[in-house]
Fold this sequence. Notes:
Elements: E1 4-9, H1 23-39, H2 46-50, E2 54-64, E3 73-83, E4 87-96, E5 99-111, H3 122-134, E6 147-149, E7 162-164, E8 184-187, H4 201-214, E9 220-227, E10 237-245, E11 248-255, E12 258-268
Antiparallel strand pairs: 1-3, 2-5, 2-9, 3-4, 4-5, 6-7, 8-10, 9-12, 10-11, 11-12
Helix pairs in contact: 1-4
Amino acid sequence: MKPFSRTQIVRGYEVDASRTTPLPVMLSFLEQLRWEWIADPAWGLAEGIHHGHFFVVRQQILEMVERPRFGDALTITGALEKVGRSLVHVRHILSIDGRHVGHARVQGVWLGPDRKLARIPPLARQIGREQGASLGPMSICGADEDAILHGDSERSFLDAPRHLYRARGLELTPPRALDVPISAAVKVRPSDCDVFNHVNASQYLRYFDDARIALGHTGMLQRVGLYYPAEALSGDELTIRIQPNGDELYGVLERDGTLLCGAVLGTIPTRTDR
């Protein structure tokens, strides 16, 4: 079976002050593709969803070599790289006008109505074996150097600057702990939660992004890696710790000392940072 693919137009309310699409929104785009994928009867998963089963993200790593702008037609593709008993590995490619602008690897686990690990249906496992065997090496070409191409486009989001990055790869390992003082506090709002009644996977990156900017860490996110060992719920009071690690930032988000999310945040300077 061929990889699952959709094309969507980037909308005005999905871009930020850089006039390009921030990475938390990109994670939401990837999740929407996977939801449509799961709903397709050909994959043998929809019946499980109707009976209370669902996938949750355990780890995801995303790299962009160009951030989409308002009006871009963004094509998102997903393929099953490997499927185990309860764990699935998904490969994503993101393209604009035929050129690859981003890629991602996502690990998800299949849970039953009791929120415990469940066996992935046989059809999906078979498709995963077939797709995984047909996939070649995963790589993406970026710009020769990080650049923001302005021209006359600085004046309006209708013709925004292009943000081009060097490809750095998806070899990121999110931290499991940080021995630094608490950097920020967050209380989970009901609007942070999704249809499964827990904090959505993309929302954790928004927490980290807000915290690092508030702490004076400038620049734009170019690639991120996130690990989710446990879930956060509405009303939870969370703490965030952030620590520089070379050219990147490490972050952990905890509830009463329990790790809920570890993150690696890779940034590049904005024009005003240079």
